[in-house]
């Protein structure tokens, strides 16, 4: 039997549906994404994975950590091993062991060029053939180490190079998924939707969406919930304008994030109005809270999203069943002042006061880790004898050493970015405006 397409159907689904459950795979390279997809779709499938070229090529940190995570997640269903002696194994063997308890005594074996990766199974021109010989000796002769071994780093090279499996061959071009957010290709080449994390009026939802596990703005959790339960809301307009963008209800979808995480999600609820993580609907909420820097289980306020610098996520369809979730903050020194104005009550404390003048400092400030500074807005107020009160004379920018009360610079009447530029010049630091405007920052809201 010669197979040149639909490998998932012929190599996995058909054999599984006929009663086989235990699949051993030797492949030069293996995709954790494809492993996740198979184990989620075939509930009784047991996989033993042998990655053949690790001794020769090493393995990326992304893939290695993904395998370790998956072995724990699919305990008793997944084992992953690396070949550790050179020159490695470039063979690709799919070996269904005999399920004697089901009365089937014939082993199923397929060999060929198709690796157990997205590219090998879905995008490249590959070939597999059914083989009736004995392949057990191939697996027996491997020199392997368990991916969860404590001394794994002594046996293999774990590198930080770009993960080749995330460079997907798609419509005759190479697509580096994670670089899309930086190169501006998403909007022009791939279908995307923007999913707001707030409701009408700009507030976070009181007990739905990212706050699904809560019972209103009082911070109380729903009984028996963790507080991390969450889903991404999908509007009717999305389905009306893009009816084939998302899978059908309950169908699985693999979601990669711009920071290298990976989730198995499904479309849920009536009218397909939600996306949630499959294993546990708290996974997504925990991820969002960790990303924006609030405690696990916390009710997410609008100001938490403002401080982070983003109140929506972008979901891009790479191909059927594979999506990229972009939640990268776009908060930089070039645009942080716009975000500050979205905070209705920035609050002030008295920094200095005498009989003639009062200096106020805001309780909201901008943290710039690359410059090791915190940048505050302030106000200079003069005493007015007629009204018997302090009146505002001018704005003030106050710069402190990061995380301290040590004031290192102040300047009146300037924008934040100009004051930072002048501060850098005064201390002999790089002050090129393009460089400063590109610096990432964080808005800190003091209680």
TrEMBL record:
It comes from the Bacteria. The keyword Hydrolase applies. Residues 191-276 form the Ig-like domain. Its EC number is 3.1.21.-. Keywords: Endonuclease, Hydrolase, Nuclease. This is NgoFVII family restriction endonuclease. The lineage of its organism: Bacteria, Bacillati, Bacillota, Bacilli, Bacillales. It is an enzyme of class 3 (hydrolase). PROSITE patterns: IG_LIKE. One of its GO terms (molecular function) is hydrolase activity.
